[in-house]
Amino acid sequence: MKQTIITACTVAFLATACSSGSDVKRLVVMSSGKIQAAGKDAKEITFEPGTQHNEMEFQYVGKDPVKFTVKSKDGDKTYDLTENGAYVLNLKAADTLIGSIVNYGNSGIPTSITTEQLQHIVDSTQQLIMGLNASDEARTYFLVPNSIKKISANYNARLIGPFNGIPNSVEVDKDGKAPEVYKFATTKQKREDLYKLVDRMNK
Q1: Count of domains forming the chain
Q2: How far is CA 48 from CA 4, 10, 44, 76, 79, in A?
Q3: What contacts 56, CB < 8 A, 6 or more positions away?
Q4: Rounded to 5 degrees, what angle do the CA atoms 54, 85, 45 make?
Q5: Which domain of life is it from (predicted)?
Q6: Phi and psi angles of residue 67, each rounded to the nearest 5 degrees, phi first
Q7: Pick from 105, 103, 92: nearest CA to 161
Q8: What pTM value is reported for the model?
């Protein structure tokens, strides 16, 4: 069984983000292999490919674009974070990451679905696995290996990787809105989810 190691390298808001408004770029690296970084705001990592799932989070305060470099035995590769917001970088060499927003509605609890909605989810999942209906508008994402994607303009959006479950409930804000939560899975996991959905429909 694969183990999961999550390393949080986040900037303290009190001294930085709070004084800089929303000029923040947040990056979550999801990888298969070992990640090494000098600090929470490092713009360079050393990556050793492997089979163990790892995640590491970075945060940058300021308006300037950020260039993020990955050093590995295959050479250096640089990724650009040009706008404020939350990003995911997929360093899983053999896995595409599939992601979407979690719909908590206005109650902070995942919304129930009808049979028709379940059929739509099955159809959409089938297409998403093939990379056919990923879009910023639908808030669905298809990240091939060694690619980066801005997920949300909200740098506080919660980005949940493979092997980590979503919260059963979240706290809504004073306006009754649930926080942004996005769940990412490998294509294998997504296919398993699809089989479960189809089985649920047939019962």
Answers
A1: 1
A2: 16, 22, 13, 12, 17
A3: 6, 7, 8, 9, 28, 29, 31, 35, 37, 45
A4: 35
A5: Bacteria
A6: -105, 125
A7: 92
A8: 0.80
Please give the Cα distance from 79 to 67 (Å, whole number): 6
> How confident is the model over 197-203, as a mean pLDDT?
72
Which SS3 state, helix, strand or coil, does residue 79 take?
strand
Q: Name the DSSP class of 97.
A: E
Cβ proximity of 85 and 91 under 8 Å: no
Helix, coil or strand: residue 195: helix
In 3D, which of 83, 77, 100, 84 has the Cα closest to residue 31?
77
More confident residue, 40 or 2: 40
**Which amino acid makes up residue 103?**
N
Residue-wise DSSP of 37-59: ESSTT-SEEEEEEEEEEEEEEEE
For residue 190, what pLDDT band results from cuts at 50, 70 and 90?
confident
pLDDT of residue 107: 54
- Residues contacting residue 45 through CB under 8 Å, at least 6 positions apart: 29, 35, 36, 37, 56, 68, 69, 70, 71
d(CA 96, CA 143) in angstroms, rounded, equals 6
Q: Does 8 score more than 70 pLDDT?
A: no
